[in-house]
Structures are given as C-alpha cells and as structure tokens.
Amino acid sequence: MFGSARFKRILSTLSIPAMLAFTGSTAVLAAEDKPVAFDYLALGDSLAAGVTPYNQIDDGYTDFLAEKIEELGFLGYYTNRFAVPGYTTEDVLDDIQDDVEKGGDHPECGGE
User: Which of 69, 79, 74, 86 is nearest to 101 (CA)?
Assistant: First the structure.
C-alpha cells in the first residue's frame, strides 16, 4: 500500500499545499520581528501516529514537522495523542465532540 504510485501521488498532493502554506507564513512572521508560537495538534490514523512498515510506532511525518517548526523557533506546543492507528475521520470527530482526553505526547517536541 505505502509503495504504490497512487498512495505516493495522494501524499504528495496533500503535503505540498501544507508545506507551501507554512513556508509562506514563516516569512511573514519573521518579518514582524515578534516571536510567534504555533500550537500543533496532529490528528489522524497510523500515518500521523508514526507507524513504520514493520508495524511499530516511531517518529512519523507529524513528529518531523514538529521538529522543523521547533528548529525555526515557532513551536509552542505539540502533541500527537489523537493520532491513533486505525482511526477514521468519524473516530476523530467523536473524540472532539465527546471532549476525549488521551495520553501519548512526545515531550521532546514540546508535548506534555
């Protein structure tokens, strides 16, 4: 699944606008000479949680993005506690509507 051309095309399509939006906003924020911190909440399934091809949880794209934001000096808080393998959009919506609390932060990236 992860090696398929269709999957790579979908991931590229979703990643490029996010990177462009973030890159543009950092240039504007840097020009203001004010320290601005972003709070970053990762929502999603196994990709957001960092599941590897070996079915282990490790750093994933959400962690790498948080580290980059932190390197740039814009990370206020980061958590991926709502990134759960097997989750669907319905699961995420239910968690939000039910005000669910979860553990699983990455302290090295600004989490609790």
Answer: 79
Alpha-carbon distance of 97 to 69, in angstroms, equals: 28
Q: Do the beta carbons of residue 4 and residue 42 sit within 8 Å? A: no
The pTM assigned to this predicted structure is 0.60
Helices (H) and strands (E) in the chain, counts: 4, 2
Q: What is the largest CA-CA distance in the chain?
A: 44
One-letter amino acid at 109 equals: C
- The Cα 89–Cα 70 span in angstroms is 27
For the stretch 48-96, pLDDT in tens is 999 999 999 999 999 999 999 999 999 999 999 889 999 999 998 998 8
Rounded Cα distance between 44 and 51, Å, is: 12
Any idea where the domains of the chain sit in the sequence?
1-34, 37-112
